[in-house]
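We emphasize that the prediction below concerns an isolated chain of 293 residues; any contacts that depend on oligomerization or on bound cofactors are therefore not represented. The input was used exactly as deposited, without trimming of termini.
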Amino acid sequence: MEAIKRPAPAKINLALDILGPRPDGYHEMRMVMQTVSLCDTVTLSEGEAGFTLDTDGDFLPAGEKTLEEQAAESFFRELGRPCPPLSVGLEKRTPAYAGLGGGSADVAALLRLLRERYAPELSTEVLERIGLTVGSDMPFCVRGGTVLAEGRGEILTDLPPLPPCWLAICKPDFSLPTGEMFAKVRGRIFQSRPDIDGMARALGEGRLEGVAKRLYNVFEEVLPAETREEIQGIKTAMRCCGALNAAMSGSGPAVFGLFQREEEAMAAAESLGTWCGQTFTARPVGQLDGPAV
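Result of the prediction step, given as a token string:
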């Protein structure tokens, strides 16, 4: 078959709250999640044998099935048929291990490609359910847009879109393992919590400033002192460049700032790029259904 491809947009957490541990070992979450235009590109074609994944990154698990292969197997299991030989290519741009959902976004894009090629009748809800077999944030990455995510991240409620704006995103030159970050919050009593209901109202009223002033991520409270200082420094630099506000995304360490004007976001990314890892500019993206190219 002719190769088809899709963008795999990253995500940010406009608000992230952890309500406590669950009996199944996960944590009860409440988050406002937003798809952004920073993205990888995923290509799908039929292979000669088995499942192959070609990527320009260096973070594939040795000797293990990749999330992409697991997702493909789950997809065809849903269809009640064996997985055909597939060749998948990844062009990486979103930083890995950054709290931006890059790996999950790649898998979600692959699921959308598989649906388009093999089962266009499948609903987004079914595709989200397939994604959940691979990871908790997969349902959101399948759907995209502006969403309230609850449960372990799989209970999704669409919210009004984030008003037009620009983002600067900075990934410092270190990583924060997700498992270790969740271990730090177990039993933690947080000093503050995000006003998620207030953020939802601000979204409904189309007030970017109202959304911005409610940006908050409880993971920031459990950062080691030196790391917290660096994250705070990035946030301060973004505000000095004109950001309405800034916050860490996911379990970190990427930080994003919300800007009303493109030139401010670009100036912030350029300034931060001189001393702070990888920087990008992006815009909000709506829901992700649509044809591949």
